[in-house]
Specification:
The chain contains 13 helices and 19 strands. It is of the alpha/beta class and about 450 residues long. The protein has two domains: about 325 residues, Adenylosuccinate Synthetase, Chain A, domain 3; about 100 residues, Orthogonal Bundle (Adenylosuccinate Synthetase, subunit A, domain 2), CATH 1.10.300. A hairpin with a 2-residue loop joins strand 3 and strand 4. Helix 3 crosses helix 4. The longest helix has 23 residues. The protein binds guanosine-5'-diphosphate, 6-O-phosphoryl inosine monophosphate (IMO) and magnesium ion.
Length: about 450
């Protein structure tokens, strides 16, 4: 079934290089000018990917960004956890906005299903005394991945099987109600009501369901290009992030293969998305965090409030050791720097260039969250450009200090900057010619 390297379509992974919300949605949208398929591989409706087209704002949680171009195929891969009700709500609002979703949007029959007891368990755990509060999005993501790994989850194919669905919900509710009552004194959920609601949702989802691994590998063999749309970010990855303050899936590039069924040998390029500074939403380590007026200023200028939960995002300066780590873990060959415009007012920009622990420089990311408390960030100050960049469309037209800022990031991370975003709109994008030709983005 696998196609040879020469005949198959091109592939690129878009991965968050920080703590999520780097602007992945916007960049995926720019790439879909050329790429014909977009596939989500991890996470669920904890993600919020913003795309602005002609001033109209779309926030996608489950549906890949490709949906905004009718000629593009959008795939929700097996690595995603799917809340059927959230999916149908998103589909309905896309339809209401005149977006085509029939015949171009597909859901894996192997994706795991989020059910109400997953949210119940998460709520209980987050508020239980003695438990580490992660500051989750309360979408039931963690407990659903727990059930997947515990081999007791419900997959989309099972959701469509009414008899199996009833038995699964009855058994799971019995078990989860007992646990939630014993641990968190939670009120029991009604299995019968749940079955009726989800059986109805299943019928509405049925037309979208496919063996998406087969669909994607066939598309590749036919020469179609695929962009893998990462959710979350490197430092939220279950293995490589700031554990336990992470999400419950592999958001790093490795997840693209397992989360879609497209083999690692069919991946051509990994594109890391990084803001020109840093943000994080939820609890956990954040070495360059600014807790002062400057942090508040970045939050205001960058409009740093969660797309899904509306929570204020924590803000800080660019963290190059973190970005180098993201480069190593993901195999990033191209970087996209977003929100450069948010730094437009500054005459001087601090950048973290190294970590020190006990006075000694280190390149190692701590394996324990408390290890981050020992980190002392080493900063250098880059000259700011103190002029607007939002209307600029070429690298050469950027102020000299902005080009130097980008060149410094390249030098320090070893990855090339292929795209710069200077505003939320599709058009507020600078494409570097080498990136355009390597990704076949010509004729955009
Ligand atoms: P994602 O989760 O990585 O897709 O990112 P989000 O959509 O959650 O957050 C990024 C936010 O920044 C959104 O509100 C975007 O509209 C906005 N955005 C993206 N690129 C830029 C940019 O270059 N400049 C500015 N000012 N905003 C941007
Ligand atoms: P996108 O794709 C930013 C964070 C949550 C919390 C932690 C665990 O828009 O970049 P979870 O609900 O996943 O169990 O929460 O992960 N988180 C995100 N932060 N962007 C996201 O997605 C996130 N998805 C989860 O805030 O700290
Ligand atoms: Mg987001």
């Amino acid at each position: 079934m696998s196609a040879s390297r020469t005949s198959r379509g091109r592939t690129a992974i878009i991965v968050g290089a920080q703590w999520g919300d780097e602007g992945k949605g916007k960049i995926v949208d720019v790439l879909t000018r050329t790429f014909s398929v977009v596939a989500r591989y991890a996470g669920g409706h904890n993600a919020g990917h913003t795309v602005i087209v002609n001033g109209k704002k779309f926030i996608m949680q489950l549906v890949p960004g490709g949906i905004l171009r009718p000629e593009c195929t959008s795939v929700i891969g097996n690595g995603v956890v799917l809340d059927p009700l959230a999916f149908l709500k998103e589909v309905a609002s896309l339809r209401a906005a005149g977006v085509k979703v029939d015949g171009n949007l597909f859901v894996s029959n192997r994706a795991q299903v989020i059910l109400p007891y997953h949210r119940m368990m998460e709520l209980g755990a987050e508020n239980a005394p003695g438990r580490v509060k992660i500051g989750t999005t309360s979408r039931g993501i963690g407990p659903t991945y727990e059930d997947k790994m515990g081999r007791r989850g419900l997959r989309v194919a099972d959701l469509l099987d009414s008899k199996l669905l009833r038995t699964h919900i009855e058994n799971a509710c019995r078990e989860k109600n007992m646990i939630a009552h014993a641990l968190f004194n939670a009120d029991p959920l009604d299995a019968d009501k749940m079955f009726r609601e989800y059986a109805d949702a299943a019928e509405q989802i049925r037309p979208f369901v496919r063996d998406t691994a087969l669909l994607l590998n066939r598309a590749l063999a036919e020469g179609k290009s695929i962009v893998f749309e990462g959710a979350q970010g490197t430092m939220l990855d279950i293995d490589h992030g700031t554990y336990p303050f992470v999400t419950s899936s592999n958001s790093t590039s490795g997840g693209a293969a397992t989360g879609t069924g497209v083999p690692p040998t069919s991946i051509d390029t990994v594109i890391g998305i990084s803001k020109a500074y840093c943000t994080r939403v939820g609890s956990g380590p954040f070495p360059t965090e600014l807790l002062d007026a400057q942090g508040e200023d970045l939050r205001k200028r960058g409009n740093e409030f969660g797309a899904v939960t509306g929570r204020p995002r924590r803000t800080g300066w660019l963290d190059l050791p973190e970005l180098r780590y993201a480069g190593m873990i993901n195999g990033i060959s191209w970087l996209v720097v977003t929100k450069l415009d948010v730094l437009d007012h500054l005459t001087e920009i601090p950048v973290c260039v190294g970590y020190k622990v006990d006075g000694k420089e280190t390149d190692e990311a701590p394996a324990q969250a408390y290890g981050y408390e020992k980190i002392e960030c080493v900063y250098c100050k880059m000259p700011g450009w103190a002029s607007p960049t939002q209307a600029i469309r070429t690298l050469e037209a950027l102020p000299k200090a902005a080009r130097e800022y980008l060149a410094f990031i390249e030098k320090e991370t070893g990855a090339r900057v292929g795209m710069i975003s200077t505003g939320p709109d599709r058009e507020q994008t600078i494409l570097v010619p080498e990136f355009v030709s390597e990704l076949g983005l010509k004729n955009c």
